[in-house]
Amino acid sequence: MAGRLIIGASLAPLALAFHDTHPVIAWSSSSSGALESLPSNLPTSVDVPLLLQSILNQDDVCEHDAVVLIQQPGLHASDLRTISPHSQLSKILSSSSSARQFPYVQTHGPSVVIQEFADELVSYCGSRLLSYSLGDKGVSFESGTKHVIRMDIPHLHESRLGHEISAIESAFPDHLVVLMGSAGATFEHSISSRQVFDHVDDTAANVTLPEGGILKRYQILTPALITGFLVTFFILIPILLFGIKALASIQSPLRMDAPKGFSAQEKKNQ
Fold first, then answer.
1. How far is residue 186's CA from residue 132's CA, in Å, rounded to a whole number?
2. pLDDT tens for residues 57-102?
3. pLDDT per residue as tens digits for the range 214-223
């Protein structure tokens, strides 16, 4: 019993460890010293902004023809596990020369605005800044010019994102890509609560849900749900079973029978 309580108490913080975390995936078409210098497992003190600084503040970052920064609000590690290994996006990642994947990186804030990192790269490398959202039409690349591409994706559409990255690869053979999640909408696409209230009726019919089943649309195993399961199965249920077992073990005292040949009347007359 005590062992189960200790196990339940020790596993509960593991579920909370994934709270406010988002994945960061970085890969490059050529060998990147910035990516190769990163450890395979990040310490918990490293958050998303610090990780981006470690990647983008290296000297060889300007050697790439294009640096692509992709951000999706609400992206979690569970979303990446639904990507098919045969998709174009998976093939691009597996064929990259350098790659790092960190599924749980602390955010420590409402959102990470990648526009600030893009502006710093443009100033440092003298590149051309190109900002757009996935699916925008009329996006053109200038050959012979270094680019910093900032891309926003409303939800993870692996086939469309793979097609877009393939187009970037064709235009810029030497490239560095950083895909990350964030806690909320980016700065440029954030909408005030009053605007949402005023236009909720107009936009409700135009909402596009992610393709696929319920596991692709929602994060089922949240930290709160996992913690509830651990507390229930390792603490509450063992306590209940222990109490039922204790009540069932209670026995009534044995009945005291009189010895053979004993007469209460004779004993009284003596």
1. 12
2. 888 888 999 999 998 888 888 888 888 888 888 889 889 999 989 9
3. 555 556 777 8
Instruction: Label residue 204 by pLDDT band (50, 70, 90).
Output: very low
Give the whole-angstrom CA distance, residue 21 versus residue 44: 10
Pick from 134, 162, 129, 131: nearest CA to 146: 129
The structure's pTM equals 0.63
List of E strands, 188-242: none
Q: What is the DSSP letter of 257?
A: P
Q: What is the DSSP secondary-structure string of 33-96?
A: HHHHTS-SS--TT-BHHHHHHHHHTSGGGGGSSEEEEEEEET--HHHHHTS-TTSHHHHHHHT-
Handedness of CA 193, 194, 200, 206 (dihedral sign): negative
Place of tokens 């691009």: 92
Maximum Cα interatomic distance, the chain, rounded to a whole number of Å: 127
